[in-house]
Amino acid sequence: MKNNKNLRSWLNKMELKHPLVIAGPCSAESESQVLNIAHQLKNTDATIFRAGIWKPRTRPGNFEGVGKIGLKWLKKVKDETGLLTATEVANPTHAELAIKNEVDIIWIGARSTVSPFIVQEIAEALKGTKKVVLVKNPVNPDLSLWLGAVERLYTSNIKNIGVIHRGFSYYEKTRYRNNPEWQIPIDLQNQFPDLPLLIDPSHIAGRRDIIFDLCQRALDLNFDGLMIETHHQPDDAWSDEQQQITPDKLKQITTNLKIRDEEGNAIEYQNKLANLRTQIDMVDHKLTETLGKRMKIADKIGVLKKDNNVAILQNKRWNEILEKMILEGKENGLSKEFILKIYKAIHQESINHQNKLHQDQ
Ligand code: PEP
Ligand code: MN
Question: Which of the four, 154, 215, 227, 256, has the lowest number of CB atoms within 10 Å?
Fold first, then answer.
């Protein structure tokens, strides 16, 4: 698949607002729940209604979706509100049923994108469809797997394609449910600048309070749209209750977002600057996180030294570290002076930590 302007054509043809806003509950629970939310969304920037009918759950025993009856409710949403509809398909039967029941937009979930077999089967079931098919990133941070899924659709003659960034599984606990790993969608955008890219801040965040910030960051990176889980009574939702927001809250979020125009030189400059600044912010975040981790290890060494009655300062070890880092610095385009300054500061902070430990104990 080559990058070409045609990849964007469905976005332009559908004359949807920019950024595109897809909203609706994690899961369709009942006809009245679906219609209630859809009617409230009519007063927001959302133009597409999402609801999961078949829910892939990490562990058995959780609510697994209402199944195909939900497709009739989606049809009602369309007839009563004029919103387009979207749902997830996870196998060829789902795909065929979604087409038959006039769902407008189909998405492939993160747990399906990981499996080339499943993606291939879905691509064949959808062969030649004019409907829009969105591909969520795989749960693991693997750009080739994500692009591979897009390619399988493309070679099945499906040309109205987009991708959704929903974050990646991470073993360590972080502030996110799924780590954003922004570098991956940035790389994807660099390779395929015309492939419409949306963010699903709900599944990245796993909570409500950082959804706005995630959306703003995505728009600063020129994303084309947002898919946000929205429920009339989020606390009582049957799935993902912690991350769903009300239609009113959605309205507040989209009203406050700063949308950057893509046209014009000055604006292009602003966009590029915002993009690069976001990359700097990410690196800074990693830097402080890494320094914090380093200090925690230094604390452990401090305890060990104290228990064994060993002096804090070990010159030989320190000189070895410095020599190694000067070499690594050179490989990374960093001067010797800079490395010496930085490491002196790091070393001093470690010693302060260890001294404090010795005094405290
Ligand atoms: C969803 O959108 O409700 C969903 C299950 O998402 P994901 O595939 O990103 O986990
Ligand atoms: Mn969900």
Answer: 256
